[in-house]
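During the first year of the project, the team set up a workflow for recording each protein of interest as an amino acid sequence followed immediately by a discrete structure-token representation. This format lets reviewers and collaborators read both layers of information side by side without switching files. As required by the reporting guidelines, we include two representative entries from the current panel. The first entry is reproduced here exactly as it appears in our internal archive.
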Amino acid sequence: MPNDPRSVTVCRRTLRLVLTMHGLIGMVDTAELLATELVGNAVRHTDGPAALRVSWAPDTLRIGAWDANPELPELPRELTAIGDLEDGRGLALVAACAKQWGWQPLFRGGRQGKYVWCELGGAA
């Protein structure tokens, strides 16, 4: 996806459609929230393209965002310590809502970047 804030909306709506079509409607709201945070960070913190990846294994939905910025994501602050701040909540929300989350550096074809992911568990 291009580095454009509208990409976040496109990813969120596409994710909703895919999950609904696969009978995972019970996960849609949380998955949309987490994908919005991950893709929003990818678009906000890099000048290059980004990508959303979604995979399903038995009882686990993995959502990830790739971007061309190799810098580590900022570790999430506790939501209670953030107060009324407008920024800095993204990964804290991911950490609070996901079963687990993490990141890994990526190197392909001489290009660097990172992949930040989270997992949701439970029945659809």
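The second entry, processed by the same pipeline in the following quarter, appears below.
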Amino acid sequence: MTTDIDWDNPKDPRAGSWQRDHVRQYVASDGAEGQFWNGTQTLLLTTVGRVSGHPVRTPLIYGEGDGRYLLVASNGGDGAHPLWYRNLTEHPEVRLQVGAETLHGTARTATPDERAAYWPVMLRH
């Protein structure tokens, strides 16, 4: 794990956005408010900005498969990958908050076979 990253003080989504409100409620309640949201489950992903080098926190819908947390970098159907995914391609070390639990890990892009196996899991979310 990179020791010079201040994982405890990430940049949150922009002020006034629903994402920022979601993150703030999630953190303040240790996930009691926000982990289960609009009929699905969410986690907080903290990546390291590929340009800034500073941690950035994003609320995301997730699934689980084979002991892994699964995320889809769809960017709401946009043709470009979301910023958090682009951050991961430069710096795969991450921090996750799932409910009250905080974990550090290394993210990676699923292989084509994994995508085929995990896609049905994510369609349920």
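For the second entry, the following points were noted during internal review. The chain has a mean pLDDT of 93. The two ends are 30 Å apart (CA to CA). Both points are flagged for discussion at the upcoming steering committee meeting.
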